[in-house]
């Protein structure tokens, strides 16, 4: 499908969803914005409307989405994704026509994605999972990395032009759910790196090393990673604590990875330990930037 031949519903207009949908509009699609806060959808629609031809609409009710053939979701978790799409008894919450494609770009639980996809298929709808990596900066400039899982190749081909407006690279991971599995495992690796780097900096500082010097050495040595290059210096050593990735969301992803490993009967001592570390920080700190966990660990 060429840009403009599908009407796209975009549900979830938060930190990531707002800049992502802006790029879908730039890609030439007619877009209907829908959010738990209708005012947010209305404000964003006004910001994105060029005025020449109205291709951005603020949807206030599910009924406003009835003409959409592709639905993109960017929501906090898979339970919310399911509640937006399906009623308790498995009926449709949205008035979508058979043949429509659902693209879940949230960080969802892969087992729940498979279950939701199966329920949607009974209504003639195809589900794609396409979670993202790259945080807000890459959402803004349309360079997100996408991990896409799909059982229906025809549906995937319809999803790709929409997803492509938001991304630098689309990785086809396999069957439905594999995209969400990959996202959780990626974020577990990132979380493990952050926990290890925080532990090292704390120990080094207590021994008399300068934390800034430690970061420089790590980045010129075998300990270098995305965390040491882009997170440890500005958000820990310099004390900004503003990476844009919330502690509850990263903790959720680590727990999804932990659950996934159990589901495939794999012992995961590292993942279990990282999950405990982040869980303890979350219990103490609540909804803060994930880099704030360093401060909690540093005092314990």
UniProtKB/TrEMBL annotation:
Domain 6-phosphogluconate dehydrogenase NADP-binding: 7-172
Keywords associated with the record: NAD, Oxidoreductase
Pfam families named in the record: NAD_binding_11 (PF14833), NAD_binding_2 (PF03446)
Enzyme class: oxidoreductase
E.C. no: 1.1.1.31
Molecular function GO terms recorded: 3-hydroxyisobutyrate dehydrogenase activity
Stretches assigned to the 3-hydroxyisobutyrate dehydrogenase-like NAD-binding domain: 177-295
Domain of life assignment: Bacteria
Keyword Lyase: no
InterPro entries xrefs: 3-OH-isobutyrate_DH-rel_CS, 6-PGluconate_DH-like_C_sf, 6PGD_dom2, 6PGDH_NADP-bd, HIBADH-like_NADP-bd, HIBADH-related, NAD(P)-bd_dom_sf
Similarity comment: family membership: Belongs to the HIBADH-related family.
Cited PANTHER family: 3-HYDROXYISOBUTYRATE DEHYDROGENASE-LIKE 1, MITOCHONDRIAL-RELATED
Protein name as it appears in the record: 3-hydroxyisobutyrate dehydrogenase
